[in-house]
Specification:
By secondary structure, the chain is an alpha+beta fold. The protein has four helices and 13 strands.
Length: 257
Amino acid sequence: MRAPEASIPAPPFPRDARWLNVAPLRMDKQRGRPVLVEFWDFCRVNSLRTLPYLKAWHERYAQDGLRVIGVHTGAFPPSRDDDEVARAVERLGIDYPVVLDTGLEIWDMYGNEGWPGRYLWDTRGALFSMHYGEGAYAETELEIQELLGVERAPLAPIRPEDAPGVLLPAQSQDVPGPYSGPYEAGGVWAVLSGTGTIVVNGTPRDVAWPGCHRLVEHAVHTAGVLELEVGDGVTCHMTCFTPGVASAAHAPAPPAA
């Protein structure tokens, strides 16, 4: 969503914030380059699903002047632990700067409303566009190119459900804690901490690190049944469902002749 012309200035970063991958940055020192700020949480599956695009934009446009900054604001106990965030950034292969917003100070200054929250600032430090949630990847990349004055083919959709115009039936709602039972989705994930074993539909899985773990993946939106057993030493904070492209059964009926 495009912002009103030059009406919202970029908030500063707290001077005492902890940064990863870079020395502390000041927003006012970024003038002259576009800055893409994304609020994320390594325990939220929708943040993980947008992450490949953020990494690719950093790789594609850093040399042209784009600054990508991740603002990590955790919503679950493991993602409120700064050291766990640092380990997750390394595990996920994130090379761009990440600032830790454990106390929600930056979140409040932005008035952010959810994960992921994407803000693109122009070379003057004014808000150019913003987007909440997944999607709008091609639009964001074209906006980045507009600010940089470059033209390239945008990234191809990484997943089928990222393609513009595809039909995505509503998936089941996320459930706090572990869940077993029927669902409809393209995939099932769980936010886990601790170490040990879980059993997913009869198959044991080792849990060695905190975060959002994929349990089930379907090629299309599917009605299924989840049987999840959480072993000793592991805590399941939430069971999450991700969208899938509509199958033929969900396609709209052709108009009557």
